Amino acid sequence: MIKYTKNNLKKMEQYLADHDFKLIYEKGQFKSGYCIVNKSNIIVVNKFFDTEGRINALQEIIPQLNIGEGIFEKQK
Q1: 74 assigned to some structural domain
Q2: How far apart are CA 19 and CA 68, in angstroms?
Q3: What is the pLDDT of residue 33?
Q4: Residue 11 falls within a domain, yes or no?
Q5: What are the DSSP calls for 36-74, one per residue?
Q6: Which pLDDT value is given to residue 65?
Q7: Do 8 and 2 form a contact (C-beta atoms < 8 A)?
Q8: Per DSSP, what are the bridge partners of residue 43?
Q9: Range of the domain at 45
């Protein structure tokens, strides 16, 4: 499990950007706190989430994207 720090959030955001995903923080009517827009490379996360909520949402999203090894596996 990773620590809920802004630095780790930035790493996750950069990881998505490196894989050509656009991450947007906006308000919306999505139950889980995030959505992937029409199978495109746009991810929307609830902007009212704190750092922990954003990291948790991204931890749920990244494995679904099938973009290679896990972001924090190299650090173990």
Answers
A1: no
A2: 10
A3: 67
A4: yes
A5: EGGGSSEEEEETT--HHHHHHHHHHHHHHT--SS-TTGG
A6: 85
A7: yes
A8: 23, 36
A9: 6-66
Average pLDDT, consecutive stretches of 10 residues, N- to C-terminus, the chain (76 residues): 93 94 85 73 90 93 80 55
- Please indicate, yes or no, if residue 16 is contained in any of the structural domains: yes
pTM: 0.80
Give just the sign of the alpha carbon dihedral 21, 9, 49, 53: positive
For the chain, the domain total comes to 1
Characterise 38 by phi-psi region: left (phi > 0), alpha (psi -120 to 50), beta (else).
left
Q: Does residue 57 come out as left (phi exceeding 0), alpha (psi in the -120 to 50 range) or beta? A: alpha
